[in-house]
Design brief:
Largest sheet: 7 strands, parallel
Oligomer: single chain
Distance between the termini: 29 Å
Strand order of the largest sheet: 3-2-1-4-5-6-7
Strand content: 15-25%
Number of helices: 16
Structural class: alpha/beta
Shape: globular
Helix content: 40-55%
Radius of gyration: 23 Å
Number of strands: 13
Length: 424
Amino acid sequence: MSKSASGDRDLKKKLVILFDEYPFEPGEYSFVRSELKKLLECFDVHIISVSPSTEQKMPLDERITLHHCMREFGIKEKFKALIGFLCSSYGVGECMKILKSGQDVAGRFYDAVVYYAMAGQMRSYVKRNRLITGGELVYSYWFNADCLAFLMEKKRYPNLRVISRIHGYDLYDERNPHNRQPFREYMDKTVDRLFFVADAGMEYYLSHWGKREMVGKKYIAAPIGTADSGSAQKNWFRGRREPFHVVSCSHVIPLKRVPLIIEGLARIKDIRIRWTHFGTGSHYEETVKYAEKLLGDKENISYEMTGFVPVEEIMRFYGENCIDCFLTTSSTEGSPVSVQEAMSFGIPVIATAVGELPNMIDGSGILLPENPQAQDVSGALTRFYHMSDEETVKMHVNARVLWEQKYNADENAEKFVRMLKEIN
């Protein structure tokens, strides 16, 4: 690093960003790429990743300092965490709340201990490596145990400022196996700012833990958005044609219900359809087999399940191909980036009525029920196929307009960085 670059960093406030995986895994990259560019202009950026992977799969800007907190959960670590939890005011407070609820006490107790253990290992790593002195701004990308670790450190460092985004798994009780987010009351009280990626998520939070008078002060709606990869594609609708091209993009895990797409396609007999699915996951292999079983012999359906594809290649695919609609059957969502990316290309969306999706696709797609059946999926695809050209063009245009208004990552990142600079 040059002397000028080093001096420039010395003049900037230190920003510590906490990630689950990045840059060791690519999953978070599509969320943060625009934001990181803006943050680097204003802050001395340090990243702490807790990825269990040892291979760094994503390159980093040379101005970023990377730290890797590798957690261990052997018998020794678990026993130490349990004793520490039971002897701490944090643990006692959690135990009282869990007992008072009277629901799934053992499971919720276990969750709280694990959460405390993860926070404890992060605190030990930070202390061991002397990563904070008290004047930093800590930005947790998820409202999780890593964020809790730094919130606990505020007792030692009163000038430390901790802010967090909040998405889905770190927000909804239902996303936890025992239907409870640990330490939520303490974290709510202690965090300096909480940035919601969707209005629906904020409403959920307010109904469970938050105070409405703090909206716009402590609780702030701050969509992330996506890069403007679709700006060059102006002629989004190119007339009725076959095959009707449907794209989906998600992890192949139970929450995303990709088999439901397969079941919906299997019911369609009178339309030639091409289906492309981007993404892999724990249930990828069995889902590929399921697709072959239901769709393999159907002459009117062609399909490809690509597995993992870098986001840049997906965007290039959207730009080079005529895509009629994007389809998601997810059982839970915040404000999905995959949908925003499709909308930037003027691609209408068929989606389940969960999370922020009803607001996202207003006038630019078709809503499925929260828990659709295969006939709902096939019905929505058939309905879209038979729309008039006028209706179809309107949906394509509305998709792009909605993206420009709410999900332009560069504009949203600039607003977000301005808010961070104002935190003292």
